[in-house]
Amino acid sequence: MGEWNFNMADAPRGEFRQVTRKIGKNEVTMEEHVPVLIIAAGNDLAVTPSKWIEKEQRWNMFTKDVPPIAWQPWPTHPEASS
């Protein structure tokens, strides 16, 4: 495991991409949020996978009032190709 980063503003929140969907007979292009999975630590010693929930402006498994206190990037498999 890597080092904990206590600056949650540095945690990756994902990106937006353009998607086209068919709604009825119309094709509509809209923006969609694609979150990034991280490892997050809570102030109660819990460590859990988490991702940014754009619509709610909070981290998954946490609340706005009690956000994670630190994070690490999600690890990759040691045999995964880069």
Explain how this protein is built.
- By secondary structure, this protein is mainly β.
- It has one domain (8-73).
- The chain contains no helices and 7 strands.
- It has strands spanning 15-23, 26-34, 38-41, 47-50, 52-53, 58-59, 70-73.
- The chain has a 3-stranded antiparallel sheet with strand order 4-3-7, with no helix packed on it. A two-stranded antiparallel ribbon has the order 1-2. It has a two-stranded antiparallel sheet with strand order 5-6.
- Strand 1 and strand 2 form a beta hairpin.
- It is extended, with a radius of gyration of 16 Å.
- The mean pLDDT is 93.
Topology (SSEs and partners):
Elements: E1 15-23, E2 26-34, E3 38-41, E4 47-50, E5 52-53, E6 58-59, E7 70-73
Antiparallel strand pairs: 1-2, 3-4, 3-7, 5-6
Query: What is the number of helical segments per DSSP (H or I, 4+ residues)?
Result: 0
Give Rg in angstroms: 16 Å
**So what's the overall shape?**
extended
Helix content: under 10%
Integer count of domains:
1
What's the overall average pLDDT, rounded?
Answer: 93
Spell out the helices and strands N to C: EEEEEEE
Major sheet: size, sense and barrel closure?
3 strands, antiparallel
E-strand count: 7
Structural class, by secondary structure, is mainly beta
Distance between the termini: 18 Å
Strand residue percentage: 35-45%
